[in-house]
């Protein structure tokens, strides 16, 4: 019997971001790509949007016990869910993940807030252009050939995202609030679930150093894999990502 696998997407996206890799995962797992509250099939969500509340909401929709993958904002939510209810997790994979998104006086492995405030305004003004701009940021690289491939990837990704309703401006702002206000560094010692971290060497959204720091703090860290990608390692280096994911989730605990 295949083990359940829950996939959580990132900010401004929906479960459609996983479409391209699901065929490679489905022979090995019972895959459930969840829309975060306020996104995709759950566009009508109107509950509390604190991190604890969203983590609890996602747990209520997931199998009783499963492997979990969280990407970007989805990784933040998955970490909180694993801290709240570790018994619900078989294993946890954190992709492009950080315990703290923004820079601060004692944290220089984050990013500045201003560009993302600007991005939120872009989404309010013109969603179609803003989502393309955000995706380009996620695959930004100085390698011209790689960036050309990544732009093609973005063109292929957009139709899958467009098949679901767009998040409201309020949902987008609430998600940014979570990213801007969350600092999980003091809670990582409670993240007891066996965990794997996947990072992109050229990630301009979550600096690779933040993912490396995260892995070092995990009480039960299994492996860290840094791939030659931006913020979308599961799409930019799909073969290697799938290989490492299956090896991790099928490894003996």
What are the salient characteristics of this protein?
Rossmann fold; six-stranded parallel β-sheet; 253 residues; globular; alpha/beta; 6 strands
List the helices and strands and how they pair.
Layout: E1 3-8, H1 22-25, E2 29-34, H2 51-61, E3 66-71, H3 73-84, E4 89-95, H4 114-125, H5 127-138, H6 144-162, H7 169-181, E5 195-200, H8 208-217, E6 221-227, H9 233-236, H10 238-250
Parallel strand pairs: 1-2, 1-3, 3-4, 4-5, 5-6
Description:
With 253 residues, the chain is of the alpha/beta class. Helices cover 43% and strands 15% of the residues. It contains ten helices and six strands; from the N terminus they run βαβαβαβααααβαβαα. Strands 2-1-3-4-5-6 form a six-stranded parallel β-sheet, sandwiched between helices. Helix 2 packs across helix 3.
């Amino acid at each position: 019997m295949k083990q359940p696998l829950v996939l959580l997407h990132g900010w401004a996206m929906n479960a459609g971001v996983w479409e391209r890799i699901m065929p490679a995962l489905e022979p090995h797992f019972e895959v459930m790509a969840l829309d975060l509250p306020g996104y995709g099939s759950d566009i009508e969500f109107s509950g509390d949007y604190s991190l604890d509340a969203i983590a609890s909401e996602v747990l209520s929709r997931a199998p009783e016990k499963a492997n979990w993958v969280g990407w970007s904002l989805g990784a933040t939510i998955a970490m909180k869910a694993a801290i709240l209810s570790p018994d619900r997790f078989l294993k946890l994979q954190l992709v492009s993940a950080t315990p703290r998104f923004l820079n601060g006086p004692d944290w220089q492995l984050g990013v500045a807030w201003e560009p993302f405030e600007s991005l939120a305004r872009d989404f309010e003004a013109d969603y179609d252009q803003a989502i393309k701009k955000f995706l380009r940021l996620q695959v930004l690289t100085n390698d011209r050939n790689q960036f050309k491939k990544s732009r093609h990837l973005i063109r292929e990704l957009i139709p899958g995202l467009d098949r679901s309703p767009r998040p409201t401006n309020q949902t987008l702002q609430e998600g940014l609030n979570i990213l801007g206000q969350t600092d999980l560094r003091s809670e990582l010692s409670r993240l007891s679930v066996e965990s794997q971290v996947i990072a992109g060497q050229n990630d301009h959204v979550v600096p690779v150093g933040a993912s490396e720091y995260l892995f070092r703090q995990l009480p039960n860290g299994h492996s860290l894999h840094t791939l030659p990608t931006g913020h979308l390692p599961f799409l930019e280096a799909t073969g290697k990502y799938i290989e490492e994911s299956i090896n991790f989730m099928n490894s003996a605990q």
